[in-house]
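Weekly structure sync - notes
Attendees: PM, LS, DV (DV joined late)
Agenda: review two folding runs queued last week.

Item 1: First target. Sequence and C-alpha cells pasted below for the record.
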Amino acid sequence: MNLGEEITIFTPDRAVEILKVVGVFDLGVASLNKNWLISTIGTAQSVGKLGDTVTSIEMQVSEVFRADENASVISERLSGSALLVTDWKSQNEDLLSGLNGQSVSSIMIQVFVIIAVSLGIASVLAITVVQKSRQIGILKAMGLKDSTTSFVFLFQGLALGIVGAVVGIAFGILLIIMFSTFAVGTDGEPIIRISLSYGFVMLSALIAIGASTIAAMVPARRSSKLSPVEVIRNG
C-alpha cells in the first residue's frame, strides 16, 4: 500500500466508503499493521455514522503498572456519569500474573546468584587465611596489628568486587550491543528494543561491591583471631 492510493471500506450497514491513504504507520506488530486503520476523528464519525459522538477513548500512561490507580482516579471524577472506565490490568489478569511471576523469579535468581558469589569469595579468602597463616603469624609477631591484618582481606574483597563489577558491566553492555546488532527483524530493526538504565547499572555495581566486601568480613575476622605463637609453633 502506497501513499495516495484509495481503499474501499464496507461498513456494517453495507455502505461503501472510499478513503485515500495519506500516511503509513508501523505499530511493530504484524497483526495490528494488517487490521488497524488510523484516521481523523471526523472521518471515523462519518464512516461509522456516529454524528459528533465517540464510542471510546483510549490513553497511554507513562507507568503501565499504575494504570489501575489512574483508572480509579478518572472513575471517581466521572462518578455519576454513564461512562465505563477500565484498565489493561483488569482486562488481562492472566498476562499480569505472568509478568508478576517473571519479576519475582528474576529477583530470586539475582538474590541466589549474589549469595553464591558471596560464598565463593568468602571461601576463597578463607582458604587464603589458612594458606598464609604462618606468614600472618610472623607479621603479627613483628608487631602487625590485628586491625591491619583484617584490613588486608577486606581490601581484597573490595578489589574483587570492583573488578567483578567492571567486568560484569562491560560484558553486559557487549551482550546488549551484540543482541541489538544481530537479533534484527526483516526491516533491519532490533526484534526487542533494549534501553540501558544507568541507575540500575550503578545499583548493580554497588550491590556487587557491597556483597564481596561483606563476604570478606568472615576471613578478615578469622585472620584477626590468629595467635602468632600458636601459628609459628604449629607451622
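Item 2: Second target, run right after the first with the same settings.
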Amino acid sequence: MWRDSPGVPGGGRRGPKARYSTGDIVSKAIDIADAGGLAAVTVRKLAQALDMTAMSVYTHVNSRDDLLVLMVDHAYAQMPKASFGRSAWHTRARRVAEDNLALLCAHAWLLDIDDPRTALGPGSIAKYDHELRVFDGTTLSDLHRDAALTFLLDFVRSSADRIVRTPLAVPDFGAFWEQSVHRLANYLGEDFPLAQRVGGVAGEAMNAPYDAVQAWEFGLARVIAGLAGLISQPT
C-alpha cells in the first residue's frame, strides 16, 4: 500500500521493466468491479483484461484479498474531499456524509469489502485525517471524535447499501397503489389499523413503498442532531 512513499527502500530489481505497475493493476481491477461487481474481480479475469498471465499479476499482489485492500485504498485516495473553509461542524459533517455517499454509489463494491487492513493504507489515513476535522473547534475528546465520525459513516454506509440495492421505483406505482389500496383494505378489515393508516399516508406521499432519498435526508438530519446533543455537553 505504501509502495509510492519516499520511505520505501530502493529496490535492486533486475530484468526488463514490467509493462504494468501495481497501480495499473489496481486501477484495472476497479474498472472491472465498477462494471460487474466484486464477484467479477478475479486474478484470471484481471490478467485477461491486461493481456498478461495470472502469474504476472501475482508479482504485484500476493492474493485476491490483498488486491481488494489495495482497491479500497486507491478509491479512498482518489475520493474528492470537500473544502471545509470556515463552515460550522454540522455543515462539514453533511459534506463528509455526501462525499462518502457519492463514493459508495460510484463504487458499490466497497460495500462488500470489510478487511481491517484497509485502515493502514495512505489513502485511508488521509481520508480519516480529513474527516476527523469535521469536529475541529468542538469540545469532543479524541476518543469521542473518532466515535462521532464512525457513527456518521456507519449511517452513510447503511444508507448507501439501501440506495444502491433498492430497485428503481416503478413508474406507475401511483396507479398500482390506487388500484390495490381498496382491495387491500377489504382483506385487512379492521386488522392492523396503525399500519394501514401510516402506510397509506407514507405511500401516497412517496408514491412508492420506500423512498431511499427521503430516508437519507431524514436520517442524516437525525444523526447530526444527535451529534449536536453530544457536542453541546460540557466537558
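Discussion on item 2: The chain has ten helices and no strands.
Action: LS to circulate a short write-up before next sync.
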